[in-house]
Task: structure prediction
Amino acid sequence: MDKKWWKESVVYQIYPRSFCDSNGDGIGDLNGIISKLDYLKNLGIDVIWLSPVYKSPNDDNGYDISDYEDIMDDFGTMEDFDKLLKEAHARNIKIVMDLVVNHTSDEHKWFIESRSSKENPKRDYYIWREKKDNKEPNNWGSYFSGSAWQYDEKTDMYYLHLFSKKQPDLNWENSKVRKEVFDMMTRWCEKGIDGFRMDVISLISKPEGLPDGEKSKDSLYGSSAACANGPKVHEYLKEMNKKVLSKFDIMTVGECAGVTLEEAKKYANADGSELNMVFQFEHVGLDDGENMKWSNKKISLAELKENLSKWQNGLDGIAWNSLFFCNHDQPRIVSRLGDDSKEFREKSAKCIATCLHLMQGTPYIYQGEELGMTNTKFESVKDFRDLESINAYYELTKAGVISEKELFPLICYKSRDNARTPMQWDNSENAGFTTGKPWIALNPNYKTINAKEQVNREDSVFNYYKKLIKLRHENEIIVYGKYELLLPNDEDLFVYQRILGNEKLLVCCNFSKEYRDFDFSEFKNGEVLISNLNVADITEKTGLSGYEAIVVREKLS
Ligand code: GLC
Ligand code: CA
Result:
């Protein structure tokens, strides 16, 4: 297998708004990030993925960009950005930028022009359609509730927005749009950034004729699923690769909603013709229910194993996996797959981390995951900041799909805001995140769960992550070894092997609270690489206690 730096790296995602506030306005910023680079260096990560820091009116917290080449006032200035890049590089940390080019903000100058008249040269930068029977051009719903079409009086036409109405979709069919985007990317690369995480990149090519989508029983709108992996997406990415990506030594990861294994082999093909890797979402969709993500269904471990193993085996040697459970769109994984009670929080956070970080692929840590941060407590709808949660709450309850009483706890459990509560630095007021009034309430558990308490405590979740990162840096088998699942049907134990040359790893994780027998005899000559209970020797070991995780290395003769 081809060796690459981005295969050997561990990425840390920063959601700038919630990371560290340097000037007391309650909003995290670039200088705040700079002040925490030594913390990240200590953790040992190689790459920072920065969620969007560009100019934005913040309808979707920066995922609605009004200027790709300037910095959001809340976050600082371009000088601050340059300083961040320089300071990160001085510590051998790379910076990957979020690239949001499926859509812009409606306040982007291209859209302001586009909307001004049918004859404007930028009209065709976006997707405009005439009314159909005096209604929307098709039945698509937006990911953030409501129709995916917004009527615009000025020219008596509709524009498409797969996300909020302040996020109009760019028209990738237009070669001028592609050129603008590629030139902008080139300027960022020339500035010295180290890669791109491409927001919903699987959605850029819309299906021919924009046909109505399927409408399920209770849904108010038709599905726009046909936009995922659309007809020309690979053509566009190959063009982007040829004109931009191939000219720089950068890493690229595509956020690919709706990607299948077969599609991923194209996006992330080892031939380097498109991207380095994709984020797929099947494993974090296993607990979807009747109302899609608004469900409290538990992920079945057997299904999770089957799914992740499919990706491990399916891409081996052909493409490359990214490994993640958390990001700014997902609830906290200890509260979802682990157990965030006092008894098991740290243990289950470490167990989940072991299971993910020992797989083949590039691991991503989302801010606070390395502390075992949990979901938060919302008292009412007023506590939500995220438009996805707020819109879904009103749309589904008003339409009578589900009652407020039933829906509220489901949104609390799955809301993206769980990931967006401020980073918990210490136990002082507002967790050391800000000296002002935080833009979103802190998780009240910061008094006990915080970085300061963990950095110098040897058995903390933080120090466990630090060990996992170090192990990956020191053991090629963790990066490149072949993956093999054991005990596929077991509902409690996630056990797999990694194999490279004359070495073998056994990774054993108990995802239940109960003790489980496990036969270690085949590995009894092995050496323990890491254990969340500090087990040093397995010769006498016959099982795993609740949420125990252990990794054993054996030399094959
Ligand atoms: C991606 C981002 C998400 C954002 C959406 C629209 O899914 O991760 O946060 O809301 O795209 O840009
Ligand atoms: Ca600030």
In short: The pocket of alpha-D-glucopyranose (ligand 1) is lined by residues 60, 63, 100, 163, 199-200, 255, 328-329 (CB under 6 Å). The radius of gyration is 23 Å.
